[in-house]
Specification:
about 240 residues, about 50% helix, single chain, 6-stranded parallel sheet, globular, 11 helices, alpha/beta
Length: about 240
């Protein structure tokens, strides 16, 4: 047996616009407006401000997460769980594409360890990962601090946020917990976004998936595989990816 065949195989997936044809963070915000949890004018104004900072590369992810989780923190765990279940039925479930499920299953059936590595927070993404057949332990999302007295979210980020270089740091921590480094694994990462170039640069096989124009051009320049899993829509903003 060669050293290559003994290496652990990892299949890493971004979530928004990669496994889903939408941005789950943005859609959750829109959903909270529809159910009356957020004022449409004020929420849109603040969301647009954060998106402008995101585009400019100046987004303060801590401020954004406080904003994005505000309604959940105010409503509490029971109401939030019920709302998220409705969100899954009405928004996420219909958006999950069979080709995305097939891609995840193919890696799992091949014996690969599948992880979702996303900059969207864990409250939004845990049920989505489960619907895609990915276990909780295999989800690296923005972790949220819980108040030790109430057990509910405080709006603060716990540890390193999984955004840009943070995705690399979280993956390296995941590997270190298992006594591994990048040289011990054969890794593939699927992503649509230029924000994920740091992790795409780290893995063995980079796959630009439903790539935005800049990532498509970079993938062509570097010889990365390009996978158009489904048409990318413009109906929602990509706030984190």
């Amino acid at each position: 047996m060669t050293s290559d065949t003994r290496r652990l195989r990892l299949a890493l997936f971004d979530l928004d616009h990669t496994l889903l044809p939408l941005d789950s963070d943005y859609e959750w915000g829109e959903f909270t407006i529809r159910i009356g949890w957020n004022d449409p004018v004020e929420f849109a104004r603040r969301n647009d401000e954060f998106y402008a900072h995101y585009q400019a590369g100046t987004l303060n992810v801590h401020d954004y997460v406080r904003f994005a989780t505000e309604a959940v923190r105010q409503r509490g765990p029971e109401a939030s769980a019920a709302a998220h279940a409705q969100f899954m039925r009405e928004v996420i479930g219909p958006a999950i594409q069979p080709q995305a499920l097939k891609l995840v299953r193919e890696h799992q059936e091949a014996g690969d360890t599948v992880l979702i590595v996303t900059a969207t927070n864990e409250f939004v993404t845990r049920p989505i990962a489960k619907a895609l057949g990915v276990e909780d332990a295999a989800l690296l999302a923005v972790q949220l601090v819980r108040d030790p007295l109430t057990g509910w979210y405080t709006g603060e980020i716990d540890g390193v946020p999984t955004m840009r270089e943070g995705k690399v740091r979280r993956m390296e921590a995941w590997l270190a917990e298992r006594g591994l480094t990048w040289s011990d694994v054969d890794s593939t990462f699927y992503s649509d976004s230029m924000n994920d170039v740091p992790l795409l640069d780290k893995v063995t096989h980079a796959v630009a998936t439903n790539p935005d124009p800049r990532l498509r051009a970079l993938a062509q320049e570097r010889g990365w595989r390009i996978l158009d899993l489904f048409p990318k829509t413009d109906a929602s903003q990509d706030t984190a990816s």
